[in-house]
Write a structure and sequence with these properties.
Strand content: under 5%
Distance between the termini: 40 Å
Mean pLDDT: 84
Helix content: 40-55%
Shape: extended
Radius of gyration: 20 Å
Structural class: mainly alpha
Order of helices and strands: HHHHH
């Protein structure tokens, strides 16, 4: 197995650093941050793509010190322009699980569990909106291409 797929002491250190970053990020008031011109990012981030890579320490430093502050935090209490996901602490933590699980929900064959959960949420939302029982919007094992996708 390639080294990149092994869990090593270095991977453990990376995991601890990322969890510490994430914990600090959600435990403290969200920064609003700001937009930064590309020239400033070029100067502050430097060269980040190379055959040797920059290493996880430098990648995390560039993210936390340069890129994150140049990215609007959509979970800030005054941010109503963009909503990519639920701006809750639980949702942020669960995103770590979803990312670590490397799931895809492109179809029932590869994402039955995730799609089932999505369908439960869609059904709940449809019920709240007073939509009929046949209202749908996601894959099911019975769905055929080009047809309505019932729950």
């Amino acid at each position: 197995m390639q080294l990149m797929h092994r869990y090593t002491e270095d991977t453990e250190e990376l995991a601890r650093s990322i969890v510490a970053y994430a914990r600090g990020r959600i435990a403290n008031p969200q920064p609003l941050d700001r937009t930064v011109p590309p020239e400033e990012l070029d100067a502050r981030a430097g060269e980040t793509i190379s055959a040797e890579g920059v290493g996880w320490e430098e990648a995390l430093r560039v993210w936390s010190e340069v890129l994150a502050p140049a990215t609007i935090s959509t979970d800030h209490p005054t941010s109503f322009a963009f909503v990519p996901g639920a701006p809750t602490k639980a949702a942020a933590l669960f995103d770590l699980i979803v990312g670590a699980s490397s799931t895809i929900a492109a179809g029932w064959i590869d994402g039955a569990g995730a799609i089932w959960a999505e369908n439960q949420t869609l059904r709940w939302l449809a019920d709240l909106a007073g939509m009929p029982a046949e209202a749908g919007g996601s894959s099911s094992p019975e769905a055929r291409p080009g047809t309505s996708r019932p729950w």
